[in-house]
Structure formats: structure tokens, C-alpha cells
Amino acid sequence: MRPRSTPKPNPAAASRITAKLCGVACAIAFGSFAVSCGLDPVHDGAVKALGDEDPNIPPGPYHRQGQPCNVCHDVQGPADSKFALSGTIFWGPTNNIGVDQAFVRIVDANGAKKCFVTNCKGNFFARPEQVPKLTFPILVSVEKPPAYRAMTGRIGRERACSNCHKNPRFFDSPGQVRLVNSEAEVPADAKAAAKACPPPGDPPLLRCPEDQE
Ligand code: HEC
Ligand code: HEC
Question: pLDDT band for position 204 (50/70/90)?
Fold first, then answer.
């Protein structure tokens, strides 16, 4: 039996290639390391544009109301935890009064339904393990009985509501996600509740009506 001939490695050629690759990749990597710690200057810029933490709200479920959480809570970080979907529901079109215990419902491309509850900042987020089979595009609706609103279009792949729902409302943006059309319709007790948010201590465990026993 003849031994099968194995191609001889060519160390010289291999190291030439490595050098070339590294020449490009390392220049990019070290270039941006010098500025910050990321590998992607566009992503770094998006994170920086969101500004510093509000010193009154520690990083957690109540922070960064209205911001696109997934800019940070996704594969590129800087947050360690990743979200499958995230956003903030507001009462009115321009204020920063979040809707406490609004139900955010999604129906994914496979017809799978899931419901999430906002906290007193109006923030909600879904962890990947809560929706392991989430398949885009998805349909979404928001409810705080009796108020109800649904998005007509499907979300193709964007995980952060606020990456599309930016203020002000304009040709390029539907504005912040809101339950009522004018500030005058925002209930007085919602304004009072917003002042008392975040609550001291642990956040309450919230569930949608369909997820309660
Ligand atoms: C500019 C970046 C940035 C944005 C935007 C951001 N976060 Fe965070 N978040 C962090 C960092 C950093 C931490 C620290 C803990 C960590 O690394 O996960 C954190 C922590 C958290 C935590 C506690 C850790 C956990 O997984 O339980 C929650 C909850 C959270 N954020 C929710 C949100 C929500 C909801 C939004 C959007 C409304 C949001 N974050 C937007 C950077 C961000
Ligand atoms: C890819 C961009 C995009 C993303 C992501 C997105 N939306 Fe929308 N949304 C729109 C646009 C555009 C409209 C207006 C047209 C329509 O209803 O489809 C809209 C409309 C809505 C409406 C109806 C508003 C009204 O005037 O009644 C609600 C509610 C809504 N979105 C909630 C959400 C929530 C919650 C999320 C995150 C889970 C989200 N959207 C993510 C683009 C987006």
C-alpha cells in the first residue's frame, strides 16, 4: 500500500499571509483600541452618543429611559447582559412619563405569542432565554387598559424599539412609543407615579394577564 501523499506545509507562504492579514486587522484593531476599547468605531460612536449614566439611577431596569437598550445590551456590549427585544412605552407624544405595567405583546413569524410588562419608567426588555425561538419579522402591540395601540408594520430585525421610535416625530420617525395623542390626555396619577419611580428596593415581579395562574 502506498501512503497517501500529504501536501507539504509551506511555512514561508503561511507567514506571509499571516503578516498581510495582521497588517490590516491589527491596524484596525489597535487603531480603535487607542480611542476606546471596542473593535467597531461605528458601534463605539453609537454607545458614546447615548451619554453618561444618570447619577440618580443605577444601571438596571430603570436606567436610560427611552434609549435604544440594545445598542449596549447586545453582542458587542458594553453591557454584559443581552436582550432579545427592548424599549420604553411613554404616555404622551413628547413627555418622559413612562407607562407603568403596560403590556407589550409580540407575535413572531411563526405565530408564537409573548407578552412583556413595563416597569414604572415604561422600560421593558426580553432576555434571550425568555424568547429562545424568536423569529423576525414580528408584530407588536401595546396595552394599558383601556388604552391600546398596535403597530401596523412588521419589525424586520431591529431589536430596540427606540432605534426607530426617536423623538421628535418626523418624516423619518414615528416618535416615541406612546399611548395617547396629546399631553393633555395623560392621567394626573401617571405623572405622580412617575415622580415616585424608581421605587426603593427590589422591583415588583410583573406578569401579563395571560401569564397569571
Ligand atoms: C449606553 C449603554 C446602555 C444602554 C443604552 C442601556 N444599558 Fe442597561 N446596562 C448597561 C451597563 C453597562 C450595565 C451594567 C451591567 C451589565 O454589564 O450588564 C447595564 C445594566 C442593566 C441591567 C442590569 C443587568 C441585568 O441584565 O439585569 C438592566 C436590567 C438594564 N441595564 C436594562 C436596560 C434597559 C431596559 C435599557 C433601555 C431602556 C438599557 N438597559 C439601556 C448599559 C446600557
Ligand atoms: C424598524 C422600525 C421600528 C421598530 C424597531 C419599532 N417600530 Fe413601532 N412603528 C414604526 C413605524 C414606522 C410606525 C408607524 C407606522 C405603523 O404603525 O406601522 C410604528 C408604530 C408603532 C405603534 C403605533 C403608534 C400609533 O400611532 O398608534 C406602536 C404602538 C409601536 N410602533 C410600538 C412599537 C414597539 C413597542 C416596538 C418595540 C418592540 C416598536 N414599535 C419597534 C417603526 C418601528
Answer: confident
